[in-house]
Description:
39% of the residues lie in helices and 18% in strands. The protein is of the alpha/beta class. Mean pLDDT is 93; it is low at 1-15.
Amino acid sequence: xxxxxxxxxxxxxxxxxxxxxxxxxxxxxxxxxxxxxxxxxxxxxxxxxxxxxxxxxxxxxxxxxxxxxxxxxxxxxxxxxxxxxxxxxxxxxxxxxxxxxxxxxxxxxxxxxxxxxxxxxxxxxxxxxxxxxxxxxxxxxxxxxxxxxxxxxxxxxxxxxxxxxxxxxxxxxxxxxxxxxxxxxxxxxxxxxxxxxxxxxxxxxxxxxxxxxxxxxxxxxxxxxxxxxxxxxxxxxxxxxxxxxxxxxxxxxxxxxxxxxxxxxxxxxxxxxxxxxxxxxxxxxxxxxxxxxxxxxxxxxxxxxxxxxxxxxxxxxxxxxxxxxxxxxxxxxxxxxxxxxxxxxxxxxxxxxxxxxxxxxxxxxxxxxxxxxxxxxxxxxxxxxxxxxxxxxxxxxxxxxxxxxxxxxxxxxxxxxxxxxxxxxxxxxxxxxxxxxxxxxxxxxxxxxxxxxxxxxxxxxxxxxxxxxxxxxx
Length: 474
């Protein structure tokens, strides 16, 4: 593998010293519109060939891409970024290939309807510092699959990574005889520049902080955003504790906890509380303390002044412990801490974008669900929850009771809530949180959200209109 300290490739195409001003955004959008008009003439096969190559580029170059992103942002884990790049490229393309997105895409014979896909135009894609390559890859694949152009607005602290991807994608477009300006990006942007882009594009995908998402919804354009994650995970009484612990650790440790769907707060049966902790420790990747002084030090480090400390986001467990004056082994990937309660009873019940996980015992499953709900109502409503259970009644009870858009069952939430090869969630990097999270969708963003669909409606010749008496009969 390429070392995470490798130099970031600069490449050719976009001037490194250039800076996009709000006024210049209009030029980018104008070029995108010209390119998109040409793209309208491309066949489904031509479109799919480009979209496939977008994914394959990231898959084939995952090591160097991960090295650049890790070096530039300093967040997460190099090896996990490699796995994420390969995994998302694989699963997103697997989900897109073979699906119609040009011209007639389907018919409903019973309703006598014909569905015709139409592009939206220019997509403004606001990308986060936590995912500066895979998120724009996903956005570009969805945008172009639906016939659109896309303009990235990267986070200032992750611009090189997104710039290199943009250059590579423009080269791919050129190799397919497609206009390079189907993919562009804002360079050295600002809040004002991003706002100008959102206001000038036809549709906005905002993957980032709450302020940016609100700005997207205030842009006057159709927008898709995300909400805060704060995944509670319940361990039911009928499961293998070792299996559940291993999956939770895999999710919570991945990329040092910067995945919004990673497990944050474990609820386990009170009679299995100590056994659950032992199974976490048995993974060899977890450090646990129930010493009140140490727990309080770590609580204050993670939530400085009651708010998430930006200096722990995406940082290794050992570094976070050191900030609290605690020395833990280098092998530790997750810090496990006992919570004093759920909801407002302990700040550890809030979202922690780092490998720190809280644990709390419960008496009844109903109580566990209520505690999970209390956490979500403090932070994370609309996002996700996880459950390890073989009890179908409990699975459905939790799905009904919680204000969530997805319940991840018997899987590592961080690795599968955004879609996987073995579940039915649409593969994505943008997880909608519904009205609970201030979002317009309560599902995973997909290419279908970036297309308009015209419907041809014809008379249903085999259908007899009911009489008024038949309509109103009880």
